[in-house]
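Reviewers of the previous submission asked for a worked example of the structure-prediction workflow described in the proposal, so we include one complete record here. The input consisted solely of the amino acid sequence. No template or homolog information was supplied to the procedure at any stage.
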Amino acid sequence: MKKWVYAIGDVHGKYDLFKKLVNEFDPLNHQLVLMGDLNDRGPNTKECFLLGMQLVKENNAIYLRGNHEEYFLQFLQSPEGWYEPYLRNGGKETFDSLLHPGSTEEYSPTEIALMIRSRYGELIDFLCERPLYYEWHNYLFVHAGVDLTKKDWHDTNPHDFIWIREPFHEGKNNTGKTIVFGHTITPMLHGDMETTDLWIHDKKIGIDGGAVFGGSMHGVVFDETGIVQDIEYQNTEGPWQGN
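From that input alone, the workflow returned the following structure tokens.
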């Protein structure tokens, strides 16, 4: 077991910031944990997916399934049914990255799904195998959160591991774990739609600084006792879009 965990928050196709944070990764001493949502909204889903897969294969990184990986896989299973909601949540940028810009104007949802399946079979198989959480000492790393009403958090519905919000944020954490999560941007958790700092409350640590919306991306180093380092890179390409 490595001495530290290095957790990187939601990437959403922002390859430039993702690569910066990966450059801070020490394979000898860090267990790397990618918190999910590497795809959608940002311009470089393909590069983010492939780097995530490479880090798992070459460095034994943990890549957690997020709700946007789930969106992508559901679209491939049922392209006509999932197309419109997926487009509204950043799918167009993913199609443009994996195929080519303007692909949604050229092809039907079924054609898009068929082309992605034919070109990215290994990636799709890899995404289907992603775990829902990772336990390390007294820490639990999960994309969205857990059902705090369960006597044993392991009994959380798989959907909640990748989708839950307020019931987890507002519930009492009696798990005995410090729960590190992404999914909900920290400006929303702080309640001001501005603050991109980590959100820390009741042994819950939110690390999604909303990079794709003009906020920041966090890489957080933990030892057994707490946070050792918070590396935060701001998105300098555009204004904050959270309001």
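The longest strand covers residues 226-234. We consider this example representative of the routine output the project will generate in years two and three.
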